[in-house]
Design brief:
Blueprint (H helix, E strand, L loop, with lengths): L16 E7 L2 H14 L3 E7 L5 E5 L2 E5 L22 H9 L9 E2 L5 E2 L16 H5 L54 E2 L4 E2 L9 H6 L3 H7 L14
Parallel strand pairs: 1-2, 2-4
Antiparallel strand pairs: 3-4, 5-6, 7-8
Length: about 240
């Protein structure tokens, strides 16, 4: 609550939207409900996970999402699934020119490290001694911003590539381009655009080396859900 009460410090910045992902806390819910009008003038989205109930509330420019699922890094990040397909015109247009996950985004992980994404390994400083502006101006911070799905292996041949969120935090670790950027297919995607079929990504033999690289074996054993059939969706925008 103390941190959230300081979000108004961003009021005069060029940041348009702030998303906060935390464990469910009733006091935090009450704080947002009672103070939403003065927390910040930015669009705010609070995601409270591991709750015993599900819900969504909207207060002008403040959204409050309460979910039952536990957001567990690394398993909760970068999962490619039909239910995560984004049939949004603005998303589609941005994905045509930029990376659909990392473009114009800056993140702070649970330890205060400033990154492109909380799950990515590269850090550009810590909020205890580095400003967001300084991190943003780092020579490598924007290196993935304009990497589109047209440059990513397998994804470049996929019919979902402009309506699907990319993931550079967890990839199959197979390909880099001449700029030394990882252009491998997202690890947690079980779709094969050449056959049009979905399969459970974590049991694919070709992904096991990358799974071991990220040390995800134990997470998968404990958390993997039984694979279910994905129905066809309407792909028209």
């Amino acid at each position: 609550i103390n941190l959230i009460s300081k979000l108004n410090l961003l009021n005069d910045s060029s940041i348009n939207e702030v998303s906060v992902v935390v464990n469910y806390d009733l006091q935090l819910v009450k704080f947002v409900r009672e103070n939403h009008y003065k927390i910040s003038n930015k669009f705010l989205h609070f995601v409270l996970h591991s709750s015993n109930k599900q819900g969504f509330e909207s207060f002008d420019h403040v959204h409050l999402s309460i979910i039952k699922n536990k957001i567990n890094i690394p398993l909760s990040c970068g999962l490619i699934d039909l239910k995560n397909i984004n049939l949004n015109r603005n998303f589609y247009l941005e994905a045509k020119q930029h990376n659909s996950c990392l473009h114009k985004k800056i993140a702070v992980d649970i330890e205060g490290n400033i990154k492109n994404c909380p799950s990515m390994s590269q850090s550009f400083g810590n909020i205890s001694d580095t400003t967001l502006e300084n991190a943003l101006n780092h020579s490598e911070f924007k290196k993935y911003w304009n990497l589109t799905r047209d440059s990513i292996e397998v994804c470049k041949d996929c019919e979902f590539r402009y309506i699907c969120t990319d993931c550079r935090a967890y990839t199959e670790q197979t390909t880099v381009n001449k700029e030394r950027l990882d252009t491998s297919k997202p690890l947690k995607c079980g779709y094969n655009p050449y056959t049009g079929g979905w399969e459970e990504w974590s049991t694919n033999p070709l992904k096991q080396k990358a799974i071991q690289y990220y040390g995800m074996q134990d997470f998968i054993k404990k958390s993997i859900e039984k694979f279910s059939y994905h129905p066809t969706i309407n792909k028209q925008l």
